[in-house]
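ok so I'm stuck.
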Amino acid sequence: MKLLLLILLIGCSAQPYKATDSIKLVLLHTNDHHGHFLKDSKGQAGMAARKTLVDQERLDAKKAGAFSLLLSGGDINTGTMESDLFDAEPDFKGMNIIGYDAMAVGNHEFDNSFKTILHQQKLAGFPFLSANIYWKNSNKRAFNKPLYIVKNFRGIKVGIFGLTTTDTPFKASHPDAKNLFEFRKPSVEAQKVVDILKQKEKVDFIITVTHMGHDGSDTSQGDINLASETSGIDVIVGGHSQEIIRAEKVKDTIVVQAQEWGKYLGKLELEISKKKWRANNYTLIPVNLKEKINGEYKLIEKEIKEYRPLVKMFEPYKKKVEELSKEVLGTLDQDLSGDRFKVRTRPMGIGQLLGHAMIELANVEAAVVNGGGLRATLKAGEINRKDLHAVHPYNDTIIAPKLSAKEFFDYIQKVSVYLKPQSKSVIGGYPHFVGMQLIYKGEELSKIKGTYTNWEISKTSDGKIKSNKKYVRFAISKFLANGGDSYPDLAKHKGYLDTGFSMSSALESYIKKRPTIKASKYTKQSKASILKIQ
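replied:
not stuck anymore, here's the structure
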């Protein structure tokens, strides 16, 4: 069933509205694609069906005398083996064929080198927009060709520019994000571009396509902040938080977001004139989504046929991954949930599984796993490489730092701050502690006990650290060890050791050694990883 929201008239004018002075505009959008160019195992979503749907919406708009735009809120990269193996080549080729007009640069675009990003833009054939990314130590924007685009619809000019979360250097897995670029405050940079569009380009309507999240984070503005702190933005097409935002009104701005993975195509219907504008309807159109009824998955709406040339184009990528995924590595008796909200707000068994794999391959005593590194549920049944890649789709190595007992206690204490996010937004830095148990007295961390081996570090009442072990070597992803997700940066610590083992190889090795993985073991360990006593 389509989700339909009637939006009240926005903006006022002393002059009577004249239909001949206005245009109708259908704004279509998606966000947080994350490599899902293929339909899933239930036949849901996929770019081939999205192409058919977009073509029909454009045709309907034209018949109604309306113009149309198609925008993306970013994060095309990182998520599926079929995409990641080819640096999202099929995804950007698919977007080109579908006919996107522009996209915001997402933080996961920076899981690749800047050179790869530029290559992806050539494949896409449309602008990557971000006004707040600057070359480090300069006043030159990295995405300034173009800085914005202007569409002229029968004399009505629509300006479009983009923005990216300032958390990117701490969320992207490639060092280019941190080493080459500066991510400046979105609202400040947005106002600069709005003023240019208004004064120089004389636009009548402004759309900002963003990848910042609806509420942002403790360290980065989100769409709500942006709408509140700037003037002149009419519509924000968002991404990053992967939410459904059904045309929310913030001051004089409409904010939309269409969840993730191309599950929905967002559709905002507008009327725009030189003097005023209004939003009429907002619809989220499900792309072959299904719901379970009496044990059977059934389409929510009528089936959208796939665009066959895209199906054919995607086939070689699909076959390559199928070939790599033929080997069954092991089995799982029950699902281990990788639900985005859960792994970023509470200890979960899937975090324990990944941590155990890291500990075993790196031969260390404990591990820390961030919730943002857990991207999918591991389903019960046979497990292959594709399944494991979905759980942790990053090309990241295991770092095994050696810290003194005091350094380790201080490190865990700093990291454990993320157990209680300071904002209502979930954060990727939420820590899963593996091979150890954190014991709290009230709100204070009192003791850390090893569960793989017999060691403990405690803090006395006078603040001193006592331990039966001089050093602790633990496992952590290179992303986190180098300061990702605002974790303490260990890159220059004398005990820093890059094992060279990838996170994915750790998971694969661990599963192979165990014919059957019992989910209850890891769920139980996750619940015991933090103990609070009075």
